[in-house]
Design a protein that fits this description.
The chain has 393 residues and is mostly beta strands. The chain contains four helices and 27 strands. Strands 14, 15, 16, 17, 18, 19, 22, 23, 24, 25, 26 and 27 form a twelve-stranded mixed β-sheet that branches.
Length: 393
Amino acid sequence: MVALVGISCEQQGGEGGNTPATFTVDVANITINSATVNVMPPNNETYLFDVVARLEYEEYATPADFAISRIEMLKGMAEASNRSLAEFLVSGAQSREYDWLSADTRYYAYAFGVTAEGELSTDVVMVQFRTEPYSDEPSNNTFDIKVSDITSYGAKIEVTPSNGDFYYFYAIEKAEYEKYESDEAFAKSVAQEIKLMSVDVTANLSTSYDSHTFDALLKPGTDYYAYALGISGNGVPTTGVTKVAFKTLTPTSDEIVLDYFVEACAMKMNGFYKEGVATWSIAFYAEDEDNTLYLDIQTPLAATDYVGEYTFDSSYAPNTAVAGAMEEKYWSGSCWYVYDKLGNLVESKLLSSGSVKITKSDNIYTISINALDQNNEKLKGSYTGPIEDISLF
């Protein structure tokens, strides 16, 4: 959409000796989170143009103070990147789209001349505009939901909406869903939880095809609904709830198997648990959810790697794996935890006993874990792939 509100130039400021500004600045195509700024300069000299939130701009006493602060920031960027200031300036007619703006927020588009030496050379031209607000009107969005790759503890959910309106999707136990009086009550509950989790509601919403893979978040042998519903940028339900029923598999044993991690990194820390002993903290990450396994391996200080076989205990001695522990609501040692999409802790295990074997071939590691958790439940884990060394020394 083209918005004609606020398309007028306001020359502000003007320091002695500056050339009177005749920049033409207009703002078009204003949406909820974007706008296009068009600038026509008075001549072929170099200049700077950009967008700033009104509240940030109003922290400065004068337009010239604001402009000088922006020039100083560019000087710092140029120095840090070993480039000239001129490389950050433009000349001639320019147009730029800004697609990171916040909804229902006042901004200034601005332009002013800057010499290659970093001197303010014109007055500052400011054009105020306001992005569109979110709409809470009912949406005609519909959702095609597919559930695949169902395991005892996971599944993949894919959602294809019929239009680009905001929506939210996830999974819930069927028994939990049926505790709500109606679909409308469930939708209001979901919207409220999303509003509580983030200042920017849209950070947890989708607008096009999206998918989520539950690696270890679900319970085995349990009925679930995969669901989707429209939610506005203000956190208001805009559609009914579309849901698809599915059931996780019943495992053939009581073991929890962690074999889905896709990347890993390790950090060496000398004397972390015990003076004279090195700790290698290895983190394994899943692809799509906050699902992390930590192994803390103890080695001699001189060790340059952590290949070997280790037993979980709490001695912190060399050639052991540190058993998991909970101290004042914080984990330490070897542990595994899973958070859901909204940051709620769903599952956690402390690796209390058992063993881990680590081998390496051509920078590819193979990790095999056979452990018991704090409740003596069996847990097996495996990983094959590179492990990035992020040690600080």
